[in-house]
Amino acid sequence: MTTGLPSTTVPSTAATPAPQVSLSADEARRIALRAQGLLGAPDRRAGVRGMLRQLGAVQLDTISVLARSHELVPFARLGPVGRQAVESAYWSDSHSFEYWSHAACVLPIEEWPHFAFRRRAFRDRGHRWHRMQDREGSCAAVRDRLRSEGPLTTAGLGGGRNGGEWWDWSESKIAVEWLLDIGEVVVTERRGWKRVYDLAERAVPEALFHDELDDHECLRRLVTQAGAALGVATRADLADYHRLKAEQVDAVLADTGLVPVEVQGWPRPGWADPAALESTPRGRHRTTLLSPFDSLIWDRPRTERLFGFIHRLEAYVPKPKRVHGYFAMPLLAGGKLVGRVDPAREGTTLVARQLSLESTKAVEPMARALGEAASWVGCDAVRVERCDPEELRPRLRTALDELGL
Questions:
Q1: Which positions of the chain have pLDDT values less than 70?
Q2: Model pTM score
Q3: Around Cβ 41, how many Cβ atoms within 10 Å?
Q4: How far apart are the first and last CA of the chain?
Q5: Are strands 349-357 and 381-384 parallel, antiparallel or unpaired?
Q6: CA 5 to CA 2: how far, in whole Å?
């Protein structure tokens, strides 16, 4: 998805230092799973907010099949958390905000100061996609409305479009999005999937409402956070997490405390969170379906490198050309990606429009994952339309029957 993020040029630093630690591919995979909250006992007391702090960013997307992606991410880690409880955890009591990170993401409110570099870059560039006919007047009108009336959606500000295509934004929509980009306005929640805007000075806690960190310090903190959320990563992985440039990562890596490592089979040097190297990843593996926008797998080259699993979102691929379906969700089981399913809902039936399994060992985990997902969204039956390989269908059906589905 194109976000129109501005670029910031940062000079590159010296060559990568020699690795201090050697990791096997399996060790790297397990470190990554633990860092993402998918290996070991989940911290249910910290809940959704704790998960958000651990990940540092949860991507938002319009597609809703089982649920929206920002709901699927905590479901994958914490189990069937109530969907309203998820929304409340994100959006109440100034615990988070929405901004441009990997894409449009929910971010912990503590990260507000760290995105000052991006807000400054927008200001320097002067626009994102659209230009206003009367910037000063339009922005002043939005500020005045928010100041006098409180948080508003685009509709409340006068409407988002001029009547044409989705990109044909109204002047008030361009203005409020520009004020969001530069940090004068913040998204405080999504209501019916519409952004709710408020003045940042009112919504962001006073202690965090500043742009005092220089670009180097912002980038250092974001790369450090990405390293902790990934566990072990290449430079490209670190850059992708918050959509930074390679030279931006290079400029701060030496100051992050991340440890240079060598990972068996990786063609590029790696960097590990030092805390991730202190103990061997142990504990229960989560069996679950993953949103294609889950931060464990949103970076497709990294997913292939870690799991030997090629996955592509096909929602925007013409239907006849799709291989695995509109919103194929990978199945995580035993710390590996062992299948995928393209789900839908018909009343109280979860429909697996297209399902694929890597081996017979994936049958029972797929049945359990489908059962948990069905129960979470209020379904009491599962119907499988296409199964690949077809010869595994009877085993899968038996496993689903045993679960009462």
A1: 1-15, 159-168
A2: 0.92
A3: 7
A4: 36
A5: parallel
A6: 8
